Amino acid sequence: MAAVLDEAFGHLFYALRSAGDLPFRGPAFTAHLDVDYHSKIGAGRLLLVTAEVESVAGRKLAMRATVTDGPPGAEGTRLYASAGALFVAPRPTRLVREVARYVWCLLVPGARFD
Fold first, then answer.
1. Can you list the domains of the chain with their CATH numbers?
2. Average pLDDT of the residues in 67-92
3. Which of 64, 37, 40 is closest to 50 using CA atoms?
């Protein structure tokens, strides 16, 4: 379930970035993922994962998500899990430095990218 929620957050991030709705460019990474498990999920269940933005501050993007078996808030809808996540974009200078290290390791025999 944690992987499903992290993927949902990643897709939301990508959609926001593609639309130009973030104050930063480039990648962002999951810095924190907090999952609350509310109910067991039976095999073969069709699930709905809903993710939304809580806040954006500089290079940080906070999001919330739920996993249900129907529209959130609708009568009879069961909540299976809820989560919060913080995605952080690396500083541009660090990103360039890490990419340069990676390329160096590809080009130099025996070089390691630890």
1. 2-107 (3.10.129.10)
2. 91
3. 64
Which residue's entry shows tokens 């080009």?
107
**Which of 27, 96, 85, 33 minimizes the C-alpha distance to 55?**
85
Q: What is the pTM of this model?
A: 0.79
Q: Residue 39 has which token pair?
A: 């109910």
Q: How far apart are CA 96 and CA 92, in angstroms?
A: 6
Digit-coded pLDDT (tens) for 54-78: 999 999 999 999 999 988 778 889 9
What is the number of H-type helices and E-type strands within the chain? 2, 4
CB 8 within 8 A of CB 16: no
Q: Tell me the two tokens of residue 2.
A: 């944690």
